[in-house]
Amino acid sequence: MGYPAQRLRRLRKSEALRGLVRENELSVGKLILPVFVVPGTSVRREIDALPETYHLSVDCLVEDASEAFDLGISAVLLFGLPEKKDDQASSGWSRDGIVQQAVRALKREVPELVVITDVCACEYTTHGHCGFIRNGYLDNDASLELLTRIALSHAEAGADMVAPAAMLDGQIAAMRHAFDAEGFESLPIMAYAAKFASKLYDPFFKEGTQSPLLFGDKRTHQMDCANVDEAMREIALDIEEGADIVMVKPALFYLDVVARAKQEFHMPLAAYNVSGEYAMIDAAARLGRLDRDAIMLEALIAMKRAGADLIITYFAKRAAQVLRESELTGYARAVRELADEVLAMK
User: Fold this and answer.
1) Which of 62, 130, 244, 331 matches a 20 to 30 Å C-alpha distance to 261?
2) Which residues touch 53 (CB under 8 Å, ≥6 apart)?
3) How far, in Å, CA of 122 to CA of 106, rounded?
């Protein structure tokens, strides 16, 4: 049949060549590590559903954050488990709340680390919902003041960015107006813009933040997993209200949404590789069904390929370690291959 003019395998025969033409690269500096801070000192308690992820007291959080920063991870997403909960979520906006303490400590001890705070009420309410409940229904407008109060307390503590997570109508505008009025006009907002009602969050709520729902579900404000056009409307509204970064959550099951969001809006885009996605990969690896590191990297590059600029993932530290090892190994291999070619020419 003759020699084909195009043989795509020509550029696959060595790691050096594959690297030269690789279309998407994972960058450690674009990974965001979720962290869980709890009251106390010297607390480092592994979360059963999320192996190698921990409940950390502020002192241990600073240690882990410093280690992550040294690995090249430039940002953490901070979640808090308060000592007390009530229907008003008062621990969420207290000046001495656990997140506020953690923000101040991180900015003091690891000042170059970007500290992003999750803004929601679900960790702080006795019922586990994202705001005030009226007649069994989450009251959108009444809850906006609460969420804004939490966000302002994070800003005052020194957060570099806030990430409103409740998916309430108008929450981005409410926070943006409050920030501008209080002198925080330069504080960026990363909006959970297309957050779907997903069972993939179960490890996070049951064990991560220990805030399971006492009744009902979150389908009245988080999105239906069947809807993509609606996701684009949600993202467009958050951008209009002043969001600086938009997010799709979950990531792996919603890569079509990630890709379409990037194509339509050309905004900085985050994808949240959520707890259930992490737990599935980890569990399969522990059963010997999958190579954990290989699947981890494949999953993360899939998010990048779909259009994510930033990836929030519990794999961040392990990915950073693997990428560093791979870079060193790849460099050594490329040098060896080049040397072999030079010797062959002689």
Assistant:
1) 130
2) 34, 36, 46, 47, 208, 278, 314
3) 23
User: What does DSSP assign to residue 224?
Assistant: P
| Separation between Cα atoms, residue 200 and residue 264, nearest integer Å | 26
Number of residues that make up the chain: 346
Kindly compute the dihedral angle of the four CA atoms of residues 327, 333, 339, 343, in this order, to the nearest 10 degrees.
Answer: -170
| pTM passes above 0.85 | yes
Cα dihedral 158, 162, 165, 168 sign:
positive
195 catalytic residue (yes or no): yes
Fold for 24-324, please state it. Answer: TIM Barrel (3.20.20)
Q: Could you tell me which residues come within 8 angstroms of residue 275 by beta carbon, excluding any fewer than 6 positions away?
A: 49, 50, 200, 201, 202, 203, 204, 208, 314
> Which of 30, 85, 195, 304 does the annotation list as catalytic?
195
pLDDT per 10-residue tile (average), the chain, 346 residues: 81 90 94 98 97 98 98 98 93 96 98 98 93 92 96 98 97 98 98 98 94 90 97 98 98 98 98 98 97 96 98 98 79 54 60
Q: Identify the active-site residue in 30, 85, 218, 249.
A: 249
**Residues 208, 165 contacting (CB under 8 angstroms):** no
Contacts of 262 (CB under 8 A, 6+ apart): 269, 306, 307, 308
Place of tokens 């409050």: 178
304 has catalytic annotation: no
